[in-house]
# Entry
Amino acid sequence: MAEADEQLVFLDEDPSEEDLPVVDRPWTLLIVDDDIDVHEATRYALRGIEVLGRSLELLHAYSAEEAFQLLSRPNDVGVILLDVVMETNDAGLQLVDRIRSQLGLAQVRIILRTGQPGQAPELDAIRRYDINDYKTKSELTRTRLFTTIVAAIRAYDQLHRMDESRKGLEKIVAASNGLIAQHGLETFSEGVITQIASLIGVPAEGLVCARGGLSPDEVVVIAAAGRYGGMIQRNVRTISEPRIASALLRCLEERRNIVEKRSVTLYIEAVHGLAYAAFVDSVQPIHDVDRDLLQVFCSNISRCADNIHLVDELKRQAFVDTLLELPNRSAMLRELDIRLASGGDSSTAALAVIDIDQFSSINDMFGHRFGDQLLVQVAARLRGRLPDCFVARVSGGAFGVLCSRGTLAAEHFGSVFNDPLEVNGIEQALSVSSGIVRLADVQGDGSSCFQNAYIALKRAKALGAGHSVIYSGGMSDEAHSRSRILGQLQGANARGELFPVFQPQIDLTDGRVVGLEALLRWRDANGDLIPPGEFIPIAEQSALILSLGDWILRQSLDALRKLAERGHQQLKVAVNVSVVQLRQSDFAARLDAALAATGVAPDLLELEITESAAALGTGELAALLEDLRTRGIRIAIDDFGTGFSSLAYLDKLPADCLKIDRSFIEQLDGAQGTPITELIVPLGHRLGMRVLAEGVETENQLRILRQLGCDGVQGFLLGRPMPFEELSDWLSCSAPSFPAL
Ligand code: C2E
Ligand code: MG
Ligand code: MG
# Structure
């Protein structure tokens, strides 16, 4: 900055400027005396005199009161020659008091004159009223009067300048503060014009131009006020008044301020080789004080200009994805807002949110560097194949593509990734899912457009990898009902609407009840039972499943402890856990805490996990399950056979129990018979697991399962899910009837 400051030197007045006569204002003297002759004599004595290059202007008052009235009005009076004795013996002194304390005129210099030495005021009064000089009228010869007045004018001038600079500095501080708050170069530049104009006390009329870092030859007007208004964005050379263009260009070239008689051109240097020149016209000559102020203003303003760049840069960053140098989600939202608001081509335009399938697994497997490279390639592919579309990265592995033409067909996106990408020299086949929304179908702003695209994307994902779904209105209704359910579910536990039920699990070898599966129930405010299949997946999409999971676990363990107290020892309880819970880093610790708090032995707790848990990655999941098993906790694989990759990961997961899904048990009564169940039972046994059939509803199913060597059964035939007290009674009365099995 020091270097820049040094360059803020003022040029001498430009000799080439047309030589307008500069007439400085005269000094104003007020003569107060009740003797007309004194006025005359003074006028005569001071005729033709100049002080510090300026002439004198005399004002006259013939009484203290008249002088007071005159001084009460706006005036430039710098020195007062004041008679002591007028209306009264001390009318002059009284007037001094009123000038200083009532009118608050502190700068004006006062010379007291009196006819006789005896009328001199006390020394104390001279000090108190800041009286410049005291002379008897006889003492004031022409020369004496002249020197006295020169001294008084010098004193006044100094005081006046000090006061002006103080006011000016205050103005600069206020001006800089005002400008810092301006975000954006144009507003800033307009501000500069206004502030310069106000510093030198002229109307806000002027120009600011900028020399860009990239094309230094291009000097463009970036702000213009007053009669220059029409020149904005024009090249400086096209300004019709050559003196203005040349001042601006010279200022930029010589990197310094140019103060001419009736104009100022200030040089403002900013970062990255950018510089500005601000030109302001002045009808009055520009004084030294103002020059000093402008210099201070300039160094302040350079800092403001840097700030503007900083703000602009921050703004840019707020809308750019720095990894891919692509617009980000906020930029896409802004773009959508603009297009939706303008109407325009929105009848044919569409937004697609394209999500790389399995992106997080790819990241886990190959590392984040590879993931980043993949994203770079995907971005390049999208930009290359969809050149007319607005492409943005909207989240980790998802891109938004906004096309203005109606060519946005679902297949179109799929084909973009038909050929493999090359990442770090390796060919990588890629599948993407996409959710598409036509802007014409959007009611609302950019964010509702996004929301709809995500709803469609979710649908696409549910169909499996590589799918594309176009949003339709009905999807939103469903999404709304989901969010309504989530809202109601949030308070449900506090309102006591949730409760656990327990369904017995029977050992087929001896017919004894060996365990219970805890199942969550929700009876809403209207008394309707909402099935868990409806609300659990919604809870899984928010953190709510974590608190629900903790709660049902505690309820289950409490129930087991109470049943043990009532004589039903050695019962196990099976609790369903969601993959969201498994992802918690302190999941095992939470289980330990719940077991410790209820005093239940770990081997009486079984956790049911479904295949969705494989989303954790089989390696990580296997390690977690192994850790839980070393604590004694049992693991069951729930709904086995429904996921397509079951067999692929079954032998990798350490589990104790395999639960055959109800859909296969149902088939046992049908024409196809037993093939799948027949396979699953020995498979589970070979992997060292117990096999349990769920959803057993008929005697026939039970018989076949026994024949197949299934270890356990659960189903309506044997016992429905029951609230705790009902279950407790059931265990005491009905359970013993099973040995017949
Ligand atoms: P699931 O874990 O496979 O639970 C077995 C489901 O089968 C239960 O449905 C149960 O009521 C039902 N069921 C049992 N025997 C029969 C039968 O003989 N016939 C028929 N038709 N159905 C039978 P429910 O209670 O509606 O639960 C559905 C699913 O919701 C559960 O399937 C489980 O995945 C989930 N769920 C329930 N409670 C919880 C919970 O506390 N936490 C988690 N994460 N999920 C839960
Ligand atoms: Mg279950
Ligand atoms: Mg199940």
User: Anything to note?
Assistant: The first strand starts at residue 27 and ends at 32. Residues 142-180 form the longest helix (39 residues). Residues 638-639, 659, 694 surround magnesium ion (ligand 3) (CB under 6 Å). The two ends are 93 Å apart (CA to CA).
